[in-house]
Automatic annotation (TrEMBL), chain B:
Record family assignment: Belongs to the CENP-N/CHL4 family.
Keyword list, A-Z: Centromere, Chromosome, Nucleus
Organism name: Sphaeramia orbicularis (orbiculate cardinalfish)
Name of the protein in question: Centromere protein N
Pfam families named in the record: CENP-N
Keyword flag Nucleus: yes
GO biological process: CENP-A containing chromatin assembly; chromosome segregation
Length: 365, 322
C-alpha cells in the first residue's frame, strides 16, 4: 500500500513569524495523533521542516573509519524507507550475518539451507558504522555487505563485494523516536547498491525477521530544492563546481532541460536572496533568536524562483511546467527516483539528515 | 548503326528527363540546327528515340558518340571527377598513409570515407571519418573527426571545392538526414498569413457539435505561431540544443540585477526530437508565443550550439558541442 502523497506543504510567499514555529506545532499534533489508533489524518499534520540548519563541514573523517567512508561515498544509492525494526539488536550482528547468508543461499537454491554452513557462495556481513549518529536518540548506522566467492576459486582469493546497503537514522525526530513502543529501533533510511535480486532478498529477510516494511523513497521537488540550496550554501568552503538542475517537461516527445549554473554566480545569487530575506525578517519584530546558520524555506523558494526567472527571460519557457528530477553538484547528486550520491564526506551528515526526515515522513506508520 | 549504340541511345533517352533533352542535344553539337528543328520534342520518348535513331543511322554514329552524349548529360559528373581528383591529391599531400574512398549517391551527395593513418602506421579502417558533400551546395557534413584531423580535412575540402574558407555551422546531431533536412529546409514551412485561419489540430478529437472549446481561438493562434517558428508536419530529428549564456541577471532580486558581471550558465535541451518538443511547448502554452528568437534560431539558422552574450548571439566559434 503505497500512498504517493506530498506530505509537504509549501509555505506561502508572505509568511509571518508563526510559520517558523509551525514545525514544532506540527510534530506535537502528530505525536498526539499516534496515540489515537488508526487516525490517518495525522499525515496532514506532518510537514517537512520549514527551516533547517545550514550544513557545516563535519570533520567526519575524525569520527568514521576511512574504510566505511570509502564504501558510503561516491557510490550511487537507491533509497527506501523502513518502518521501525522490532527487536533488532546491535549486539547480534554476527548472528544476523549468518542468518542472512543462509537466507540468500536458500532463496537462490530454492531449498532449505543450514545456517551454520560455511560454504555459502554469498556471504553477508553486518557491521556498525560508528560516528555517524548525531542526536542522542539516533541509532547507530548499520552497514551490510554481501561478498561473493566462486566455488572454484581458491581459498585466498579475495571476495568481491557484490552488494552493499546501509540503514541509518541521522538527526531523526526525537519526539517520534521516543514515542515508539519498547523494543522498536528506528532506522528509517535504507540505501542499497547492487543487483535487484539481492536487494529484494535482503529486504525480505528484514521484513521476516524484524516485522518491518520497506517502501521506495522518492525525493520530491521540495527536497531536491533544499539539497540544491544547501549544497550551494557550501560554495565558499568547498567548490561545488556547478549547480546542475534537470527538469522534465511533459510534452510529446518528452523534453529534458538541463540548467547548469556557474558555482560562483549561484553562490552570489544565494547570498543576495538570503540578505533580502533577512531584511524582511528583521522587519517583523518577532522572537529574537539567534538566526545564524538557519535557512528558511522561503529563501530556498526564492532562490529557485530567481533562477527560473532568469531562464524565462531568455527562453520564455516556464520551468514550473516541468518537474524537477535531478539536482547535482560536486558534493553529490539526488534524483527524484530516489537515487542519491554523496561525493564529499564533509557534508554527508547534513544530506542524510534531510533524507532521514523524508523517510520518516513517507512512512505510513 | 549497330545494335549496341541503338540500345545505348534508347537507354540514354529514357534516362534524360524530357525538359533536359533539348538543351543536352544542343550542347552535344552533333546535330545540326536544321535537324534539331525537325525533331518535335513534345513527342513521346519512344517516338523521339525512333527519330533520333534514324538520324544516327544516317550519320553513322558509333558507341563513342553516344557515350559522348551521355557524358554531356552528366556534366556534373565531370565536376565530380574533378572534385575527387583534387580532394584525394590534396589530402594525400597533407598527410601520408591516408585511405580515401569517394562515392557518389543518387541524390547528388558525394560520400567520402577516410581512414586516417600517420607517417608510421597504416590507415585505421576501424575509425573512419565520413564526409558528405552536396556538390551544388556549400555544406559539408562530417562525422568522427578529431581535432588533429580537422584542419587537414578542412584544407583539403576548401582546395577541392574552390571555396574560400570553411567554418563550423554549429549544428550537430545523431541523424544525418535530419541535419541535412534542417539545413536545406526540406520540411514543411509554415508562413505567417495575413488572415488568421485556424489550423487543423493534429490530434483531432471527435468533434461533437454540442461541445464548444472556450479557448479555441487562442490555442489556434498558439499553434499557428508554433508552426511558423518550427515548421509544420514532421520535423527533422535533432537531439539536442545547447545554449551557453553569459548575460546579466534577469530575475527580480534587486542587488543581483545591479551586478555588472554576467551570470554564466549552460542550458541544454534534449529529446528524441527537440524541434517537435519545442513546437509542442509553444502550442501548449508552456513556452510563451511569439516564440523567442533564441529558440526559433534553431531551425532558422540551422544551428544547435549558441553562445549568447548581452551584445547579441556570439559569433559561431571553435568546436561544436555534442
Amino acid at each position: 500500500m503505497e500512498q504517493k502523497q506530498t506530505s509537504v506543504v509549501k509555505t506561502p510567499r508572505n509568511s509571518d513569524g508563526a510559520q517558523r514555529s509551525s514545525y514544532r506545532q506540527s510534530y506535537r499534533s502528530y505525536v498526539g495523533a499516534v496515540s489515537r489508533l488508526g487516525l490517518t489524518s495525522a499525515l496532514t499534520a506532518r510537514r517537512l521542516n520549514t527551516s533547517r540548519r545550514a550544513p557545516r563541514a563535519h570533520n567526519i573523517t575524525d569520527k568514521v573509519s576511512p574504510e566505511h567512508l570509502a564504501v558510503l561515498v561516491k557510490k550511487e544509492w537507491q533509497l527506501s524507507y523502513v518502518t521501525p525494526l522490532f527487536q533488532f539488536r546491535h549486539t547480534q550482528l554476527k548472528r544476523y550475518s549468518q542468518q542472512l547468508s543462509a537466507f540468500i543461499a536458500a532463496e537462490r537454491q530454492g531449498v532449505a539451507v543450514e545456517v551454520e554452513e560455511p560454504q555459502h557462495s554469498f556471504k553477508a556481513s553486518f557491521s556498525v558504522v560508528h560516528g555517524m549518529a548525531e542526536a542522542e536518540e539516533d541509532a547507530e548506522t548499520i552497514l551490510i555487505q554481501v561478498h561473493s566467492k566462486h566455488h572454484f576459486s581458491r581459498r585466498d582469493d579475495p571476495e568481491k563485494c557484490v552488494w552493499s546497503g546501509w540503514l541509518a537514522c541521522i538527526n531523526g525526530s526525537p519526539e517520534y523516536i521516543r514515542s515508539l513502543p519498547k523494543d522498536f529501533i528506528c532506522l528509517p533510511l535504507f540505501g542499497s547498491s547492487g543487483g535487484d535480486p539481492l536487494t529484494s532478498s535482503v529486504k525480505s529477510w528484514f521484513q521476516q525477521t524484524f516485522d518491518c516494511c520497506f517502501g521506495s523513497l522518492e525525493i520530491n521537488h521540495t527536497s531536491l530544492q533544499w539539497l540544491g540550496s544547501l549544497w550551494t550554501n557550501c560554495q565558499p568552503e568547498s567548490n561545488i563546481q556547478h549547480l546542475k538542475m534537470i527538469w522534465a517537461v511533459p510534452v510529446v516527445p518528452p523534453l529534458q532541460i538541463t540548467y547548469t549554473v556557474n558555482p560562483q554566480d549561484a553562490w552570489e545569487l544565494w547570498t543576495c536572496v538570503r540578505k533580502d530575506a533577512q531584511v524582511e525578517k528583521e522587519g517583523e519584530e518577532e522572537e529574537e533568536e539567534e538566526e545564524e546558520g538557519i535557512i528558511d524555506i522561503e529563501e530556498v523558494n526564492m532562490f529557485m524562483q530567481e533562477l527560473k526567472s532568469h531562464f524565462y527571460r531568455h527562453f520564455k519557457l516556464d520551468l514550473s511546467a516541468g518537474n524537477l528530477v535531478q539536482v547535482s553538484t560536486a558534493l553529490g547528486s539526488a534524483k527524484t527516483s530516489g537515487r542519491i550520491k554523496i561525493s564529499n564526506s564533509r557534508y554527508m551528515i547534513s544530506t542524510l539528515t534531510l533524507l532521514t526526515e523524508c523517510a520518516l515522513l513517507k512512512m505510513p506508520v | 548503326m549497330g545494335d549496341t549504340p541503338r540500345r545505348l541511345l534508347q537507354r540514354l533517352i529514357r534516362r534524360i528527363p524530357a525538359q533536359e533533352l533539348k538543351p543536352t542535344l544542343e550542347k552535344w553539337g552533333r546535330l545540326s540546327q536544321a535537324q534539331l528543328q525537325t525533331i518535335d520534342f513534345t513527342q513521346s520518348k519512344w517516338a523521339l528515340t525512333g527519330k533520333l535513331g534514324t538520324i544516327c543511322e544516317e550519320r553513322n554514329w558509333a558507341v563513342k558518340h553516344i557515350t559522348e552524349l551521355e557524358l554531356i548529360y552528366n556534366a556534373h559528373t565531370v565536376e565530380l571527377l574533378q572534385f575527387k581528383e583534387q580532394f584525394k591529391s590534396n589530402l594525400s599531400e597533407l598527410i601520408r598513409n591516408v585511405s580515401v574512398k569517394i562515392k557518389k549517391h543518387t541524390d547528388e551527395a558525394v560520400w567520402i570515407r577516410i581512414a586516417w593513418g600517420d607517417g608510421l602506421s597504416q590507415p585505421n579502417h576501424f575509425k573512419p571519418t565520413y564526409v558528405v558533400h552536396y556538390l551544388q551546395t556549400p555544406y559539408v557534413f562530417v562525422t568522427s573527426l578529431n581535432s588533429k584531423q580537422k584542419p587537414l580535412l578542412s584544407q583539403a575540402l576548401v582546395l577541392a571545392t574552390s571555396y574560400h574558407a570553411i567554418k563550423d555551422a554549429n549544428l550537430s546531431g545523431r541523424k544525418f538526414t535530419a541535419i541535412r533536412d534542417l539545413l536545406m529546409r526540406q520540411y514543411e514551412q509554415v508562413f505567417p498569413r495575413k488572415f488568421h485561419s485556424p489550423l487543423k489540430e493534429r490530434n483531432q478529437i471527435v468533434t461533437d457539435p454540442h461541445i464548444e472549446r472556450e479557448q479555441a481561438e487562442s490555442s489556434a493562434n498558439r499553434l499557428q505561431m508554433a508552426c511558423e517558428a518550427f515548421g509544420g508536419g514532421k520535423l527533422p530529428q535533432l537531439q539536442s540544443a545547447v545554449y551557453k549564456l553569459e548575460t546579466k541577471f534577469r530575475g527580480h532580486n534587486k542587488s543581483m540585477t545591479q551586478r555588472e558581471e554576467p551570470i554564466r550558465c549552460v542550458v541544454k535541451f534534449a529529446s528524441t526530437n527537440i524541434l517537435e518538443s519545442l513546437r509542442n511547448c509553444a502550442s501548449s502554452g508552456i513556452a510563451s508565443t511569439p516564440v523567442t528568437p533564441l529558440l526559433s534560431s534553431i531551425p532558422l539558422k540551422g544551428r544547435n550550439y549558441f553562445v549568447i552574450t548581452d551584445n547579441g548571439p556570439g559569433p559561431s566559434q571553435t568546436r561544436q558541442q555534442n
